[in-house]
Every structure is written in structure tokens, then in C-alpha cells.
Amino acid sequence: MSDRKTYPATKKPRKREALRPEDVDKLGQAILSLTQELWAVKDRQAVTEVILKEQGIDIREAIDTHKPDADLEARLAQDRQALVQKIVQDITGEYGPLE
Q: What confidence score (pLDDT) does residue 88 get?
């Protein structure tokens, strides 16, 4: 039996064995679920752009050429890093202490 904690810890990072053979199906399902969700977002974005264009507001080029200000860029970078970290943690099973 392992001495590793897999429940919330406050002093040491928690770790589980990453990608055990029995996890491969779950990982594949998670990737398919993420792909479906991503497609739903892309689909809605395309529909939104078409509807806005029909209303006389063509935002496609504005979106493509938009330069975020420093605040938006910082927020996007922070959100992007948090998402990447969450995915890496879920795949590796290495979680930092809970706050």
C-alpha cells in the first residue's frame, strides 16, 4: 500500500500515478468531450458573426486584427496558463497543495 496522500493536502503536493493503463479510455473520452465542446464554441462564434453581419455589423476582420490592451492581454495569459496547468495536472496526476 502506498503512503502517498491523494486527498486534499496543505503542506505537500499531492501525486497520483499518471496515465495508468485503465485511464487510457477515460483520457480518450475526455479528449473527445473537449473536442465536442470546442466545436460548439467555434460553431456559435461563426453563427454570431453571420448574424451580426446580417444586422450590418461585420466583426470578422475586427476580431482578426484586434490588438488587446495590456489588461486584456494579461487576463488572457493568466486564463490560458491556468487552463494549461489544469490539463497538465490532470494528465500527470501531480497536484499542488489546495489553498
A: 80
Its pTM stands at 0.58
3-state helix, strand, coil in the chain (%, to 5): 65, 5, 30
Grid cell listed for 86: 489544469
C-alpha distances (whole Å) from 60 to each of 44, 80, 98 are: 14, 22, 41
User: Is a pLDDT exceeding 80 seen at residue 16?
Assistant: no
What's the total number of domains in the chain?
2
The predicted model gives 67-79 an average pLDDT of 95
Look at residues 61, 41, 64 and name the one whose alpha carbon lies nearest to residue 53. Answer: 61
Q: Please indicate, yes or no, whether residues 27 and 46 belong to a single structural domain of this protein.
A: yes
Domain extent, residue 45, equals 21-58
Assigned domain for 36 exists? yes
| DSSP string across 51-84 | HHHHTT---HHHHHH----HHHHHHHHHHHHHHH
